[in-house]
Amino acid sequence: MLYDQIQEALTYIRNKTDFQPQFGIILGTGLGGLADEIELVHAIDYADLPHFPVSTVQSHRGQLLFGHLAGQAIVAMAGRFHYYEGYSMQQVTFPVRVMAMMGIKRLFISNVSGSTNAAIEAGDIVFVRDHINLQPENPLRGTNDERLGPRFPDMLGTYDKPMIARAMEIAAAENIRAHEGVYVALQGPNLETPAEYGFLHRIGGDLVGMSTVPEVLVARHMGLAVFVISVVSNKCYPLEIIAPTTVESVIALARKAEPRMRLIVKTLLQES
User: Fold this and answer.
1) pTM, 2 dp
2) Are 187 and 84 in contact (CB under 8 A)?
3) Mind listing the pLDDT tens digit for each residue in 48-102?
4) What is the Cα–Cα distance from 213 to 92, expressed in whole angstroms?
5) Who's near 126: CB < 8 A, 6+ residues apart?
């Protein structure tokens, strides 16, 4: 069933464009403006794509973009889907499967997050080196289709270490505050309580957010290399410094940090 749905979406795309991307990019809140730098070949609204959900999140454009960026052929999701929007995990991650079946070799993912590490400040950039999944559902749950990936994918080496190391070098050369970190995924949509922030810090989390991990799981299931870049929108540890957070303040800070994220992603693409 899932495999057939992927093929339907691919057939629709191939009827619209014969463009062959080498890389996939998920443009979350932290990197949405990168869409304007793509030398666009074709764009398809999510609403027109078979079996695609429609993004309901403020600042998400809702299109699949095909074109060139930093000299590379890419397909980009201008906006992503979240479990908290009411979609199943299979729906949330469906576009990743479609991009993988299109033949991409690496997936770049961006997001915004809260910091649960006292050394990581709002506005800092973090390259995710590992994750802790506390979401209540898994996109790989259910009958496994071996055409898509193995029943029990090994999560060791999920995040591309050489690319993380190169990203840290780029950030240092450009005087950009950057870190490596562990991302904790929760369901949302509410932000966490102070007690929860303290818990996430104690279990080894550096960042907390409501996306990314389901996409990473499916990318790993389908054999894709993964690179995740996050911009910290608010500092959540130590607990006594926590301040109220609004979606407007998150978007504003992400936009301020976006030029630095764009520089890093474009340099990595150019060198790939």
Assistant:
1) 0.95
2) yes
3) 999 998 766 655 578 999 999 999 999 999 989 999 999 999 999 999 999 999 9
4) 11
5) 113, 115, 120, 178, 179, 180, 181, 183, 206, 207, 229, 230, 231, 232
What separation, in Å, do the N-terminal and C-terminal C-alpha atoms of the chain show?
Answer: 34
Look up residue 230 and give its two tokens.
Answer: 């996050």
Q: Alpha carbon of 117 to those of 18, 69, 109, 200: distances in Å?
A: 45, 33, 21, 9
**Is the domain defined by 2-271 classed in CATH 3.40.50.1580?**
yes
178-185/207-209 β-pairing: parallel
Of 22, 20, 19, which is closest to residue 269 (Cα–Cα)?
22
Q: What is the pLDDT of residues 238-251, one digit of tens each?
A: 999 998 888 888 88
Paired with 113 in beta bridges are: 232
Residue 75 has phi, psi (to 5 degrees) of: -120, 130
CB 213 within 8 A of CB 82: no
**Torsional sign, CA 40, 176, 22, 72:** positive
Amino acid at 66: F
Spatial distance between the Cα atoms of 65 and 19, rounded to a whole number of angstroms? 11
Nearest 5 degrees, angle CA 255-CA 259-CA 264? 130
User: What does the block give as tokens for 157?
Assistant: 């080496």
